[in-house]
Amino acid sequence: MSTERTDVQVRPGVEGDLVSLTALYNHYVRETAFTFDTEIFTPEERRPWLLSHPVDGPHRLMVAVTPDSQEILGYATSSPYRAKPAYTTSVETTVYVSPHAGRRGVGTLLYEALFEALSGEDLHRAYAGIAQPNEASTRLHERFGFQYVGTYREVGRKFGRYWDVAWHEKPL
């Protein structure tokens, strides 16, 4: 499956993307509170994460690339919401867009492709935890039908301060 515009292609992530995906994620680890990881990863440390998102099934990895150079512009995932068996029909979704690719609709293309890929899976709900403030992510999720359900106050500590996480859900 592939979603395309003339300047962006969306496809499933592959092992050859690991170095670029790790570099993109590490930007968010170092520079933002959008992830609560606090130490950067090597590609080898990130490999289990990549392998936990196969081409089929409920846990997917979609990447946005430039069609010519295959430069990674962003990625979206659906991951297990929680480990206990009763949660298997729920996923947590996430989008990360390269800082130089913002405001180009990359996040929208990624979520379109992700939710299309998930449409045939035995899933009931998608959840998104958005570290606050993050208006761009909130707007993206609302455009895809996510509704706000509550906020965990000061749930994560990074950069010497506490951060709230607003939770949103979407029926699948």
TrEMBL record:
Gene3D superfamilies linked: 3.40.630.30
N-acetyltransferase domain ranges (all copies): 8-172
Keyword Transport: no
Protein origin, superkingdom: Bacteria
Keywords: Acyltransferase, Transferase
Protein name: GNAT family N-acetyltransferase
